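In response to a reviewer's request, we include the raw inputs and outputs for one of the modeled complexes. The two entities were modeled together in a single run.
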Amino acid sequence: MDTDLSGNSRVVILKCCGYGFRARAFGAPRNDGSEMSSQSPFALPGTSTELEEGLTLTPKFDADGLVTAVATDAASGEVLMVAHMNAAALAKTIATGEAWYYSRSRRALWKKGETSGHTQRVVELRVDCDQDAVWLKVEQIAGACHTGRRSCFYRAVPLGQAGAKPGEMKLEFTGERVFDPKAAYRK
Amino acid sequence: MDTDLSGNSRVVILKCCGYGFRARAFGAPRNDGSEMSSQSPFALPGTSTELEEGLTLTPKFDADGLVTAVATDAASGEVLMVAHMNAAALAKTIATGEAWYYSRSRRALWKKGETSGHTQRVVELRVDCDQDAVWLKVEQIAGACHTGRRSCFYRAVPLGQAGAKPGEMKLEFTGERVFDPKAAYRK
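The model returned the following structure tokens for the whole complex.
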């Protein structure tokens, strides 16, 4: 339960006020209030059993109004990126079959590829047991990563590194650039 | 940048105090302070360029001291689960090649499968561009989900559901139980 990290009073606020207040209560991304509170297609989460065994999508948004979203390549299975969705992004993704996210840094709803053209067509969408994460199998145009790689996970962490001191934990590159990020984001 | 969600003063605190304070500052999971502050093998994150193009693992832990962890089946590519790691969990995973996580609900370091026996041997570990998420390709014993399924993502969200009212957004089951959770967690 994510809400276990909150104090009791915070949990009560979430239960009473729904998506709009949930997103604004802690200086978090200010969503479009009308969209979140009056137009959200999602009912509030129920019991653990309802969340885990139910046939209704009732996402368990965190204190910032977000769920985690993992996008994998529908053909290769490679994890392309990990991002977040608010209620509006999730609803738009479901409705359109194109991947929408919520940018925490820009505090804005964001269609993947809206600048670069590197969109994601969703082949299948799944939700996890406690409904605080979604998995998108996508057809990715060009690359998912803003650095120009196909996947954001282009570096491996060699296993067996024990006893390393700060700054000694090494990475190894595994992925090459598939597009020029300067050109893609200059549009 | 995750830290964009924080006020400036909060960012300053993180920069000054490192992992131990980072994890405790907001009523978040109280990690073992000694383990986090004096024994962490991870240096603090540098610039965006260092994070994205560097050869050193400097995880960008969030305000709760956590990174997101996605585990996929090394053979099938299926996403098994999404969880979190603190510095200790990540360091133990790298050192041992077995998956360790941090349970937000139990506020405790947690070896996957320690109760059920359903451990995860890590075949490959990767980190994403801004080093706030890791991807584990694992060999999963039995199933990853506490509900008894192989994957936590055992329900699909049918696409094209537009204009749904709260409580109307449907799910469809895709995964069957592969073990009896009552028996597995009674040990």
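As requested, we also summarize the result in words. Residues 8-24 of chain B form the longest helix (17 residues). The domain at 2-140 of chain B is CATH 3.10.20.810 (Ubiquitin-like (UB roll)).
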